[in-house]
Amino acid sequence: MPHKILSPSILLACGLCLAPLQTMAAQPAAAHPPLSAPTKKQRLIVLTDIGGEPDDTESMVRLMLYSSEIDIEGLVATTSVWMKNDTHPDDIRHVIEAYGKARPNLLLNETGYPTVESLLAKVAVGQPGYGMDAVGNGKDSAGSNLIVKALESNDPRPLWVTAWGGINTLAQALETIHDTKSPVEAKRLIAKLRVYAISDQDDAGPWLRKKFPDLFYIVSVGAYANATWTGNNAVIDGIDNDRISNGWLAKNIQQGHGALGAAYPDVGWGMEGDTPSFLALIPNGLSVPDHPDYGGWGGRYILATPSVEGLGDSVNGGIPIMPETRPIWSNAIDAYTPYVPSDYGRAIKPGDKTFKDFRVTLWRWRDDYQNDFAARMQWATKPFAQTNHAPIIKLATPDHMTVHSGDYVGMSAAGTTDPDGDSLSYLWFDYAEAGSLDKPIAISGAEDVYHAGFTAPVVTKPETVHIILKVTDKGMPSLTSYKRIIVTVLP
């Protein structure tokens, strides 16, 4: 007999919910201890052509605010097609020093912020020249040595290397490993790597993908206009783009937020083009970094061999577009209908316009992560009681389930709380593209209550459904947390 999942109403009637309804919003406590940073964090080394244009510095400021939730193991100044012979590690140090002035206050809001001294010790310089001309025997650098050492450590966690500019420093590190390690050991070390490149900004990217066919690699091939990361700063017709405006940045980030806010420069060409490379590493309950196809703040990507047909001859800056020789993680497409507030009745409802392209996979979350950025910038100057903190979701049902066609799947977030005692709004939705079905699942009941459900579709083979719970508080700015429920549907 197919296993039946009890509906939330039955769970409540039986008294099986993990927390009663009245506990769903926590009351403010007399004291406000800082929130605990996650114990298991993603490891990160950043390669940045900082100093070439303002957006790397902007992204570095944001990264400092999340250094409590990501293990930063290296900040490496590199070259790129836009800055072929210079590196600017002092620009990294400048941001770290500004962070140092904010750190005492940040620690009032969340534990785990690293010391200035530890971050300064992780600043290094990469290859001193451009692209593959600076890679080869005897061309190791402090930056490439840092990558090798991080891979050789006994830490079992994957090592993320994000390239905000050129990636020849990673190419040198892997060339050194290839030349000095046994094939078995080289394969083991390379398997620990996770690479996210903000497009190809030197000729080392295509070389890496061809020479190391097992290397985990996320990149949008071709010109910048083809890149998922542009969803971070693209002005989209038909939505509110205020949170990427210069006025919003001045008010919420730059002015009146201490030394770290003042270190955030004006936009030169585009706001924070490099930030998407680490957004998926932030543990918000949505992103699963090792599964780019699941989607999250950093966008969604599929593993395939992308065609370069129709992309022209070169990437921005004149980097030749080379045929891809094997599958990589690259652009995926989402269809997204934003929800809009309703004056009467249900608090929210689907809007009238649906968007569908590769940038959607990223900008669909943009308002949420910009609000989160603004809240953390407030942490830089204010104590816990005067700032906002994201809700803490507690599911009363499993986050992984196996059901059969026709089963009713009940889901509940009873027990969800807010650190500041704010009122909470709920949204359950099927992230159809993240699952294996080719059609969306209708969620029963109202969108804005703490429990929901759906009837498992009829399938002829095992399929997966990804249900996202989005919980948003009514603080200023409003903050969002998520939970992903993966349901395997059997025939």
> How many domains, as an integer?
2
Judging from the principal axes of the Cα atoms, what is the shape? globular
Secondary-structure content class: alpha/beta
Which quaternary structure do these chains form? single chain
Which percent band covers the strand fraction?
15-25%
Tell me the distance between the termini: 12 Å
In angstroms, what is the radius of gyration? 23 Å
> How are the strands of the largest sheet arranged?
3-2-1-4-5-6
Classified by CATH, the class of the largest domain is: Alpha Beta
State the fourth-level CATH superfamily of the largest domain. Ribonucleoside hydrolase-like
Q: Percent of residues in helical segments?
A: 10-25%
Write the layout of secondary structure elements.
Elements: H1 8-13, E1 42-48, H2 54-65, E2 70-77, H3 89-106, H4 116-120, E3 123-125, H5 142-152, E4 159-163, H6 168-180, H7 183-190, E5 193-197, H8 204-211, E6 216-218, H9 246-254, H10 258-262, H11 276-279, E7 301-304, E8 314-315, E9 319-320, E10 328-331, E11 334-336, E12 339-341, E13 348-350, E14 355-357, H12 360-363, H13 366-379, E15 400-404, E16 408-412, E17 424-430, E18 451-455, E19 463-473, E20 480-490
Parallel strand pairs: 1-2, 1-4, 2-3, 4-5, 5-6, 15-20
Antiparallel strand pairs: 7-10, 8-9, 11-14, 12-13, 16-18, 17-19, 19-20
Helix pairs in contact: 2-3, 5-6
Structure characterization notes:
The chain has 491 residues and is α/β, with parallel strands linked by helices. It folds into 2 domains: 132 residues, Immunoglobulins (Immunoglobulin-like, Sandwich); 290 residues, Ribonucleoside hydrolase-like (Inosine-uridine Nucleoside N-ribohydrolase, Chain A, Alpha-Beta Complex), CATH 3.90.245.10. Helices cover 24% and strands 20% of the residues. α5 crosses α6. The longest helix has 18 residues. The N terminus is likely disordered.
